């Protein structure tokens, strides 16, 4: 979160009340004296001050302006303002990765003696961050089933400061009731943090549902073409100021070039998310009919236990689905290895469809017991549906399923 370049008041803002498509293209633009149409990339580490007094005032925060690109950069600022506008947040902070966004939030807002409730249905590296590293700094962490609202309620303590969920979850697409979780924190010191990676603000806006902070891996759909790594934290100005202070001190900073790439990705975000969602639903329905498939996990399916809630919280169901083949790891690997169009990679949110075996990759560092608790079976395959023609993707998956038998 970096200082604004103008003193425009909300009443002067031509984007006040603008639709998401317009915000994705226009929010955060502040042109330089050169009058550029596309956002510039400010590849500078530092800035020249008008005087010693100006330098002192900027460093102290008494005067707005750029100080050092570790925490103030015009290109990163444009990205921050745009993602904040899309999420409906007061401010945002760009970070070096999605995990850096989670780490920065925790280090900025937690202290020794605090307590965190985290869904056990999260990305494997998120689990490791909470279970292996935050606890070293005296933060107590309990993991709760995403859908067990009574366990979230019972797990709250006076020391609880964060409730952390991702919804839909990775990779089983389970859907948390954001409003209900937000209600649990009312009247307490706890903040509800929602990882919105799978939906993005194009499909879901957690802050409007009562969440306090939204986390993004910009690496995924915000970019949309698998080019750069980055993250974002969105929320109230006071909380984001704390995250900026951590960023200024510790430096998990988004680079200007990556911020520029993410700005370009945000311009087409809604169009892409709708296309991903259409194809994913088509493939999920098709997979349900295949004899080699044991079960399909996708909130867009009426049979999914979170379907009704997802219909209320989301405008569409996203591009990620998972399915279990009949058998175990050997059958899942055969299916994956037989595909020829999909990329075998753990990333998602790309124009190129990806396929992966979660139990040995994204969740491979979890203990066997943790994987069982999280529902990560050896037969599970995750597909992040890209923007290729859906018939070609079905044909590719059919090659994989044929290899299972």
Automatic annotation (TrEMBL):
<protein>
    <recommendedName>
        <fullName>O-succinylhomoserine sulfhydrylase</fullName>
        <ecNumber>2.5.1.-</ecNumber>
    </recommendedName>
</protein>
<dbReference type="GO" id="GO:0019346">
    <property type="term" value="P:transsulfuration"/>
</dbReference>
<dbReference type="GO" id="GO:0016765">
    <property type="term" value="F:transferase activity, transferring alkyl or aryl (other than methyl) groups"/>
</dbReference>
<keyword id="KW-0808">Transferase</keyword>
<dbReference type="Pfam" id="PF01053">
    <property type="entry name" value="Cys_Met_Meta_PP"/>
</dbReference>
<comment type="pathway">
    <text>Amino-acid biosynthesis; L-methionine biosynthesis via de novo pathway; L-homocysteine from O-succinyl-L-homoserine: step 1/1.</text>
</comment>
<dbReference type="InterPro" id="IPR015422">
    <property type="entry name" value="PyrdxlP-dep_Trfase_small"/>
</dbReference>
<dbReference type="InterPro" id="IPR015424">
    <property type="entry name" value="PyrdxlP-dep_Trfase"/>
</dbReference>
<dbReference type="GO" id="GO:0071268">
    <property type="term" value="P:homocysteine biosynthetic process"/>
</dbReference>
<feature type="modified residue" description="N6-(pyridoxal phosphate)lysine">
    <location>
        <position position="220"/>
    </location>
</feature>
<dbReference type="InterPro" id="IPR000277">
    <property type="entry name" value="Cys/Met-Metab_PyrdxlP-dep_enz"/>
</dbReference>
<dbReference type="InterPro" id="IPR054542">
    <property type="entry name" value="Cys_met_metab_PP"/>
</dbReference>
<keyword id="KW-0486">Methionine biosynthesis</keyword>
<dbReference type="GO" id="GO:0016846">
    <property type="term" value="F:carbon-sulfur lyase activity"/>
</dbReference>
<comment type="subunit">
    <text>Homotetramer.</text>
</comment>
<keyword id="KW-0663">Pyridoxal phosphate</keyword>
<keyword id="KW-0028">Amino-acid biosynthesis</keyword>
<dbReference type="InterPro" id="IPR015421">
    <property type="entry name" value="PyrdxlP-dep_Trfase_major"/>
</dbReference>
<comment type="function">
    <text>Catalyzes the formation of L-homocysteine from O-succinyl-L-homoserine (OSHS) and hydrogen sulfide.</text>
</comment>
<comment type="similarity">
    <text>Belongs to the trans-sulfuration enzymes family. MetZ subfamily.</text>
</comment>
<dbReference type="GO" id="GO:0071266">
    <property type="term" value="P:'de novo' L-methionine biosynthetic process"/>
</dbReference>
<dbReference type="InterPro" id="IPR006234">
    <property type="entry name" value="O-succ-hSer_sulfhydrylase"/>
</dbReference>
<dbReference type="GO" id="GO:0005737">
    <property type="term" value="C:cytoplasm"/>
</dbReference>
<dbReference type="GO" id="GO:0030170">
    <property type="term" value="F:pyridoxal phosphate binding"/>
</dbReference>
């Amino acid at each position: 979160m970096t200082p604004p370049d103008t003193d425009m008041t909300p009443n002067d803002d031509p984007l006040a009340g603008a639709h998401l498509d317009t915000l994705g293209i226009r929010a955060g633009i502040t042109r330089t004296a050169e009058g550029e149409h596309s956002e510039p990339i400010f590849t500078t580490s530092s800035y020249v001050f008008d005087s010693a007094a100006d330098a002192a005032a900027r460093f102290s925060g008494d005067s707005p302006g750029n100080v050092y690109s570790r925490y103030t950069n015009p290109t990163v600022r444009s990205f921050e303002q745009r993602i904040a506008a899309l999420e409906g947040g007061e401010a945002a902070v760009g970070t070096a990765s999605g995990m850096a966004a989670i780490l920065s939030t925790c280090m900025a807002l937690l202290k020794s003696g605090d307590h965190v409730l985290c869904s056990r249905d999260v990305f494997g590296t998120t689990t490791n961050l909470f279970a292996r590293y935050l606890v070293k700094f005296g933060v107590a962490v309990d993991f709760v089933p995403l859908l067990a609202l009574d366990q979230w309620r019972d797990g709250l303590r006076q020391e609880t400061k964060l409730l952390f969920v991702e919804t839909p979850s990775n990779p089983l697409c389970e859907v948390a009731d954001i409003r209900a979780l937000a209600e649990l924190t009312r009247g307490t010191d706890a903040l509800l943090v929602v990882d919105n990676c799978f939906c993005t603000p194009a499909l879901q806006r957690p802050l409007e549902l009562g969440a306090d902070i939204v986390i993004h891996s910009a690496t995924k759909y915000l970019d949309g073409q698998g080019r750069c790594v980055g993250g974002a934290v969105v929320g109230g100005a006071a909380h984001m100021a704390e995250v900026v202070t951590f960023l200024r001190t510790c430096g998990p900073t988004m680079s200007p070039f990556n911020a520029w790439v993410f700005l370009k990705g945000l311009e087409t975000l809604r169009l892409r998310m709708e296309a991903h969602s259409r194809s994913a639903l088509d493939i999920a329905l098709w997979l349900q009919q295949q004899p080699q498939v044991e079960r399909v996990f996708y909130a867009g399916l009426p049979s999914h236990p979170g379907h009704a809630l997802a219909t209320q919280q989301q405008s569409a169901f996203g591009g990620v689905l998972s399915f279990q083949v009949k058998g175990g790891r050997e059958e899942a690997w055969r299916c994956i290895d037989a595909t020829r169009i999909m990329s075998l990679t753990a990333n998602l949110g790309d124009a190129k469809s990806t396929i992966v075996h979660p139990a040995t990759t994204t969740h491979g560092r979890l203990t066997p017991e943790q994987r069982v608790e999280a529902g990560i079976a050896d037969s599970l395959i995750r597909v992040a549906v890209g923007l290729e023609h859906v018939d070609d993707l079905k044909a590719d998956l059919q090659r994989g399923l044929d290899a299972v038998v």
